[in-house]
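Per-record layout

source: Flavobacterium xylosi
name: Glucose-1-phosphate adenylyltransferase
length: 426
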Amino acid sequence: MKAKKKNVIAIILGGGQGSRLFPLTETRSKPAVPIGGKYRLVDIPISNCMNSDIYRMFVLTQFNSASLNAHIKNTYNFSIFSHAFVDILAAEQTPDNPTWFQGTADAVRQCMPHFLNHDFDYALILSGDQLYQMDFNQMLEEHIKNEADITIATLPVNVKDAPEFGILKTNSESCIESFIEKPAKELLPNWESDVSEQMKSEGKHYLASMGIYIFNKKLLVEIMSNKETKDFGKEIIPQAVGHKKILSYQYEGYWTDIGNIDSFFEANIGLTDDLPKFNLFDNDNKIFTRPRLLPPSKFQKTMVARSLISEGCILNAKEINRSVIGIRSRIGEGTIIQNSYVMGNDFYENICDMNDDIKEGRQLVGIGERCFISNAIVDKNCRIGNDVYIHGGNHLDDFSNELYAIKDGIVVIKKGAVIPDNYIIK
């Protein structure tokens, strides 16, 4: 039984302040954070929807939304003869809702009048900060076939990871009977669910909520009428267990929550693997983003190994190893980049600007000559001088100043930072 695509809307939750991703979220919202050299985090759920033939999407946000607005406006322009759209819904004060979003459910509640302007039978609720590739058609078909009120995408996890998630227990019909938020390890033996033989062989006996939900429209409207509940994972789902038919849709592919600097860094560096878990080179699951009219990247005696190089780069570096290099990056002679993510630049400096910078003793946009950068994230539009040494690792304590931050041993050079010649972080 096929789900009617035209009767589905997608609601993508932009998240809160994104404090765990600071300083990447200092001047942008979490969904607008660049990933993979040329994409934004919000491109992932939007692309999953488009690959599933779902073309009506709302993105809910309230913090630092200017760059996100610009990205979506410049990227997702559909035919005027179609009903497709990606709309930004920022928190707004109204007579009924005088406050900002107080949680995931409250965000959906405050935006309900906008959703109800459209005809739909099902609401697909997604997170804006996860990395995965999923065909939502299969999830929708299971939801309809089983006549569920709510369907939750679940991920089999092992005993080590289970305490980090909301864990669901299912019956023989894959319906959720009970829910526990971040259970203590000693409680886990009572929370095993039926999983595939492959998952059992990997020691994954517990079902974790992925924060991906399908709601029937009527039920969503009913639930949103209760203004006391603020969050899906902490309130609405636990309260619905035992009272509504909640289906577990097991997903066994790659999925990661981009919740902090460490997971963000590992997700990006993982893209450089020979067979990455998240496949950017998939004909059937393309990741869409803003089309840019950039020239090919140019190299000058640069040894590149296991790295992703985006468009429009000018690379005179000595070595780039296991790194992601973002659009319009400029890297000077003799520089070595290892195990790092360089986000690139939003613009090129022309020759006149570069001559003026040199004349005035200012660093050029990009990374200078004879630098060494390892275990680091270089945010956009940075000016890093010559002979700069940055060596991140577990030997470094967490720290932050106006130029950079250190989190979990990863050095994050802040957006637009100017790092002088001979600067050392080690």
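summary: The chain has a mean pLDDT of 92. The two ends are 59 Å apart (CA to CA).
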